[in-house]
Amino acid sequence: MKPRIGLSVNYEEKGPGKVGAYLGADYTDGIYAAGGLPFVLPLTDERAWIEDLADELDGLLLTGGDDIDPSYFGQEPLLGLGQVTPLRDAMEFQLFAAMRARQKPIFGICRGVQVMNAALGGTLYQDLPREFQGTLQHSQKAPRQHTAHAVEVVSGTLLAKIVEIESLPVNTYHHQAVRDLAPGCVATAHSRDGLVEAIECPSDRFTLGVQWHPENLWRKHTSHFRLFTAFTEAAAARRKAAQKESVFVREEK
């Protein structure tokens, strides 16, 4: 059976008791093309529900979307902060912790890498134009399939092994980013102006996040498709290991 990959969703309130959830098809298409079975996750902050999801899923893809409430990284809202979605924040931070406690693969894209860093004790730039004196345009005005700038990949990292290229062309659609790196994480790619573009947790089996949007690039760029295949393969391996462990426990009984 294909590994079951949960994907977080964007949402907006449509009125009292009405919430609209949505997710770009490039995410689910990429997971399925890479050998996974995508599941678009419900929005909930109920702990028991989140724990059940973590038990059943083989991997978690934290997708792009709205800004993160700065209280999650010890700050108050600053000028330039965009729309925050409290229910999504609550769910993703809890589900990230639950999946990581089970040592299940986690892949973060754009907002997803920011959730990972904040959840592990790092901080974020709330608004790059106001807080980061870089030279590159990090929110490109071009089609999403267009590569705008390159990121330099750190050799010897999980990311380097996956993409197999030192200077990787990426697209870029963000105004927030990793600021102070979380303890236990390493930066595995940077833009030319010094911004962190990818992080990973070396002590984990697969906890990797990227600031760009490979879901828009995987159809034409092999290196970006490898991110999806490496993630789904890690989820498949975790599923297989869990099944073997279950068989061993039954035999012991």
Automatic annotation (TrEMBL):
PROSITE patterns in alphabetical order: GATASE_TYPE_1 (PS51273)
InterPro entries, A to Z: Class_I_gatase-like, Peptidase_C26, PuuD-like
GO annotation terms (biological process): polyamine catabolic process
Coiled-coil stretches noted in the UniProt entry, renumbered to this chain: none
Any one GO CC term of the record: cytosol
Annotated SUPFAM superfamilies: Class I glutamine amidotransferase-like (SSF52317)
Molecular function via GO: gamma-glutamyl-gamma-aminobutyrate hydrolase activity
Name the UniProt record assigns to this protein: Uncharacterized protein
Organism of this sequence: Ferroacidibacillus organovorans
